[in-house]
Specification:
The complex is a heterodimer of chains A (319) and B (259). Chain A has 319 residues and is mainly alpha-helical. Chain A has 12 helices and 4 strands; from the N terminus they run αααββααββααααααα. Chain A has a domain at 21-238. Chain A has helices at residues 2-32, 39-54, 57-60, 80-103, 111-133, 161-183, 185-195, 197-202, 207-233, 241-254, 259-279, 285-305, and strands at residues 62-65, 70-73, 151-154, 157-160. By secondary structure, chain B is an alpha/beta fold. Chain B is built from 12 helices and 10 strands. Chain B has a 6-stranded mixed β-sheet with strand order 6-7-8-3-9-10, with helices on both faces. A 4-stranded antiparallel β-sheet of chain B has the order 2-1-4-5, covered by helices on one side. The chains are: A mainly alpha (319), B alpha/beta (259). The interface between A and B is medium-sized, with 19 and 25 residues.
Chain lengths: 319, 259
């Protein structure tokens, strides 16, 4: 029982992060029916920006040479919370710029070019981060007390403060998202564009600008997710690769266009992963790698038996 | 301060319009040599028509004649050439999202509601281009369509076809348009509901002075409501006249009235 509770907590821990990234994926998908493959790398890059602001310059220093000139950039640490918030703002601006420059010029009804662009963005962000910060994992500070004794005992299992904190942040994120989408005019416009783009245009909504808003919040929340998971995964350019796949699975379970579905999907994938790896594989590292295959299997099964996911909107085509 | 003046939710321009008064009516919408195409397929082959202020104008035509395309061309939703002036202003180069701020609201074919949004949200987004308080207008259209009020928190996608059409009309009215474009409003609705809807259109026109351009296959219904009309065939206007003249025209009777 104790082991079960512990695995349950572990699952919740991972699940929260999958949920955050899945929410970012769903935001873009809802509005554009486009999967943003660069979402993970955007989050990684944003986390590096938080890192720049959060740790002393001697650790985060960007030093690179162009042959004829040497650059060194570093910032005085401004406290982790502020650093993450600053990185979220910068990510939001970057997300908006990406929509404007890389996405908007292309016909949104033709998915392939745009999907290829997000793939390209994935590679660019990954390689640029590798060039700037190299691929060695670095420690990233945790927002929450994360020492050996920072946990609440539940039936012998350890519910770590960081897990509670991560879920609190996820809850806060949902309140903010709810406010933005339900209580603001741009949020209403965003929901209208997601629901019926042509009618949105007819009532005077500027679709491009509204999608920019979606990209901005998706990028900001991605950075938040990255900063929450970085203490556990360490920070390095490939940190989001596997996480993104689990988040895809989470979003698919939820139906790809449902925000609550993304959270439920995140928990489900987190639990499937921790229970499966725990009970079937006994935390054997080789088996942990297999849990990626499990994520894929989940995507496959959902698409097979319930293409609209658990909470998604079934598409009715009238012919 | 302004909310008192605007309590009844009728735009001033519409209230003191010309319906019933003497003198020539001014032309609200005028299309000249309007063409439109989808890819290589030319759908409109240079048509001319006018919508006088305060009138109900109708464009009749069979399936595929280009009726919907005409409305889409006015709002720049298809690639088109020619001139469209609205209130004397050239709008043929305007972005679709700018059309509504000129005072022109389009109720597209198939209603075009936002199925995942509640009834109230649908109305609020209808007033998107306005910066003043929308509440009085929402109440006003709830009064006209009590069924919508009963369902105001429901998602638009869960409404019946008739309710969705009411919602689409109410949403268009939220922008306080001077001209309402209605694309096949009767499509797929039961006869009683259609009758209701067209009575509402008549009220809107006579009492609130909303000018309308309606595109319809149901010629009987449309000509009863309209002041004058056009007949569109294969992308060209083949006939125009007052509603009474069209009703009595033998070609129209044969082709559209089933007389």
């Amino acid at each position: 029982m104790q082991l079960f509770i512990q695995r349950f907590f572990d699952g919740l821990d991972n699940g929260a992060i999958y949920a955050v990234v899945a929410v970012a994926l769903v935001l873009i998908f809802k509005a554009t029916t486009l999967i943003n493959f660069a979402q993970g790398e955007l989050a990684m890059f944003g986390t590096f920006i938080a890192y720049l602001f959060a740790v002393p310059p001697e650790d985060s220093l960007l030093s690179y040479s162009l042959g004829w000139a040497e650059f060194s950039v570093g910032f005085l640490p401004i406290g982790l919370l502020l650093a993450i918030l600053a990185a979220m703002v910068i990510s939001a601006l970057a997300g908006a710029a990406i929509e404007r420059v890389l996405i908007r010029p292309f016909d949104p009804t033709d998915h392939l070019p745009v999907v290829l662009i997000t793939f390209g963005l994935f590679l660019i962000l990954n390689s640029v981060a590798g060039y700037l910060w190299n691929f060695n994992p670095r420690a990233f500070p945790s927002l929450f007390p994360n020492g050996p004794d920072d946990f609440i005992g539940v039936g012998g299992a350890r519910l770590r403060y960081s897990v509670v904190g991560t879920w609190a942040v996820l809850g806060l994120m949902f309140v903010v998202l709810w406010f933005l989408l339900i209580r603001t005019k741009v949020g209403l416009a965003f929901r209208a564009v997601s629901s019926n783009t042509e009618s949105a245009r007819l009532v005077g909504v500027r679709v491009g600008r509204t999608l920019m808003f979606g990209w901005a919040i998706a990028a900001a929340f991605g950075t938040l997710g990255g900063s929450l998971v970085a203490p556990k995964l360490f920070i390095q350019p490939n940190m989001m690769a596997t996480l993104l796949i689990f988040s895809f699975a989470a979003a698919t379970i939820g139906g790809l266009d449902s925000l609550p579905g993304a959270v439920v999907g995140g928990i489900a994938i987190g639990l499937i992963q921790s229970l499966l790896v725990g009970y079937l594989g006994d935390y054997d590292p080789a088996f942990i790698i297999l849990s990626l295959a499990v994520a894929f299997l989940v995507i496959l099964l959902v698409l097979w038996f319930r293409p609209a996911g658990l909470f998604g909107t079934a598409r009715v085509e009238r012919v | 301060m302004t909310s008192d003046q605007e309590r009844d939710g009728v735009p001033d321009t519409a209230k003191n319009e010309t319906n019933g008064s003497s003198g020539p009516k001014s032309i609200m919408l005028k299309a000249e040599n309007l063409t439109a195409r989808y890819g290589q397929v030319h759908v409109l082959r240079g048509i001319n028509f006018e919508v006088p202020e305060g009138d109900v104008s109708v464009i009749l035509g069979a399936n595929g004649a280009g009726k919907t395309t005409t409305l889409r061309a006015i709002c720049n939703m298809v690639s088109s050439t020619g001139s469209v002036t609205f209130g004397g202003e050239q709008i043929s180069k305007s972005d679709t999202a700018d059309i509504v701020s000129h005072g022109l609201a389009h109720v597209p074919q198939g209603r075009g509601t936002f199925p995942e949004l509640s009834v109230v949200d649908n109305l609020e987004i209808g007033g998107y281009v306005r910066t003043d308080n929308l509440k009085d207008d929402i109440d006003r259209w709830f009064q006209m369509f009590p069924r919508l009020k009963e369902r105001k928190e429901q998602l638009a996608g869960s409404l019946s076809g008739g309710e969705q059409q009411m919602l689409a009309v109410a949403r268009a009215l939220m922008s306080r348009p001077r001209l309402l474009l209605l694309d096949e409003p009767s499509l797929g609705l039961a006869p009683l509901i259609i009758e209701d809807l067209f009575n509402t259109f008549r009220n809107l026109n006579e009492e609130s002075g909303v000018t309308m351009l309606i595109v319809e296959q149901n010629a009987n219904l449309a000509l009863d409501l309209a002041d004058h009309g056009y007949v569109l065939e294969a992308g060209q206007i083949v006939l125009e006249g007052s509603a009474d003249d069209l009703k009595n025209d033998s070609a129209v009777q044969d082709a559209y009235l089933g007389a």
